[in-house]
Amino acid sequence: MTINEKQDELIEDFELFDDQLDKTQYIIDLGKKLKPIADEYKSDENLIRGCQSRVWLHTEMRGDSVHFEADSEPTAQISKGLVSLLIKILSGEKPEDVANANLYFIDKIGMSSIITSRRAGGLASMIARMKEFAQSQVEKIS
Amino acid sequence: MIDIQKIRRDFPILDEVVNGKPLVYFDNAATTQKPLPVLEALANYYGHYNANIHRGIHFLAEKATSAFEASRTKIQEFLNAARVEEIIFTYGTTDGINLVTQSYGRTFLKEGDEIIISTMEHHSNIVPWQMLCEEKGCVLRVIPINDAGELLMDEYEKMLSEKTKFVSVVHVSNALGTINPVKEIIQKAHAVGAKVLIDGAQATSHIDIDVQALDCDFYVFSLHKLYGPTGMGVLYGKRDVLNAMPPYRGGGEMIKEVTFEKTIYNDLPYKFEAGTPNIADVVAAKTAVEYVEMLGKQNVANYEHELLVYGTEALQSIEGLKIIGTAKEKVSVLSFVMEGIHPQDIGVILDQQGIAVRTGHHCTQPLMKRLGIVGTSRASFAVYNTKEEIDKLVVGLHRVKKMLN
Fold it and tell me: Chain A residues with CB inside 8 Å of B352's CB?
């Protein structure tokens, strides 16, 4: 599935819910399924600035695709859920696709309205970090 | 007696619907909502007599100047200051503290002098003093607290010496609601010859303030936490202290005569009010104070205390919830943590139920560190809040638990 196909699927999933609280519950539940990352990746280097809660992002190349793993501090379950959405959409894709991805699902699933600007700031930093890594890989290849 | 339904009608914003639910506004320690008379005062000023003040000779300038100065007199009465020129208009509490550190601090404090603050200060009463210490080589000392969030007054007394030149403490803690024994703090500081600033940002809407009875050298607060406009605050200072201080900002208004060789500064209070002030908001500040006076400070305090007692009991009934800040003397602020739940998640899920609280460190990171937590969720009540709204908060928090456990 392409990044956009994955986004469209996610948007469809969220269309099942009318209520913000149900959407949030869904995000929380997705977060619970997120594979925890190794402690060694919870480093200062991997810490995303701008979140009220602490979130770590580990990036690596596997073959010709970029892979992301992330985690939040255990109590920050909404953050963890949001992070899991980004991983679902972007991890395992080609660097150029990640670097150029238009993440329209954020608006479409009403995520911008359920997250405060402060949290969105954190999420934006995370997206920026993912794209930056992907871009660096594109440059390496070319 | 408080007629709560009548008061609520004065605050049109309380009828807003948020995320499909009626708004429950419990973020009053951050800023209070504004009653209709304040909104009308702002519209009336801009609609009928907007003009720059003090030097104009035309009708509008005269009217605007009178309203601006009438506000100063009203604030003088509100604080029971001895003289009207002791009331300096600022842009807020932070601005007032910076005026004192930059003008008084840079002029009168020197290397080795000690400045005392407390563990529960807002960053705005920490950072300006740190900047001063860095520049002048002063030493910052911090009064510790107990686990309930009360100052350890014995420790404070031990800190005081002839080296102590300034004490700057918060009247009411924004994060915990603790009311500090500021009168005693001031007396003890004066006994060693130190000057005292009281940060009244969280106090003025809850407590009667009498700067002469307190005998503080400076008292600072913001109007937006007192049902007034944002971007407007007050620095009270004793006349002799203010007179001894140099101006902080240069510009128009604050001068008597300017030549390229020498400028003669204006008298108090204008010496500290360079540039066109925030006229509209100053004018509306008078209306805000009159609104609180109309309700009656004691009536407000009694009612808010009732909400505090009710809210404390209600929140304590929630398993896994712990109230942070259990001082004997408190205003209507309830900070809390919930076992295994991040404060931010509490804030997001409550918001989705139309309930506005504040989450995080409340600009008191050293306090949070002392308490061993990253932050709290804080519900702070104002005169227009109700017990029914507190019930909604309890229901909302049960929902939070259900969703996250």
Answer: 20-21, 24, 114
